[in-house]
Specification:
Blueprint lengths: L15 H21 L11 E5 L10 E10 L4 E7 L2 E6 L3 E3 L6
Antiparallel strand pairs: 1-2, 1-5, 2-3, 3-4
């Protein structure tokens, strides 16, 4: 407190600019790493997607579907048709593009 060391009665000398730059560098690096994990994919109406299950078992299925996209919303959600007359609105983090298996 008052620019003195907490345990010893000596003045505290700190390079506040270097500390600020180090924190800024750490924040930018964490943001860069988080952005690498994002999916860059634009969903289209009529496209097929797989729905990620909430809590899959260890050896169970991770996805269910494929389902057709009925509507794409601007806030990062898509509406999928589960069956005729039943739709569900999901965030794009919970859907995965469906690629049919090649024969």
């Amino acid at each position: 407190m008052f620019n003195r060391d907490m345990f010893l009665n000596i003045p505290l000398i700190a390079d506040w600019q270097a500390l600020t730059l180090k924190r800024e560098h750490l924040i930018n690096e964490n943001l860069r790493r988080a952005n690498l994990k994002r999916r860059r994919f634009d969903y289209q109406v009529g496209q097929k997607v797989l729905k990620k299950l909430h809590a899959p078992t260890k050896l169970g299925e991770r996805f269910e579907g494929p389902y057709n996209i009925e509507k794409v919303h601007v806030n990062g959600n898509v509406t999928i048709q589960l069956c005729p007359g039943v739709t569900e609105r999901l965030n794009i983090r919970r859907v995965f593009p469906y690629h049919p298996p090649s024969t």
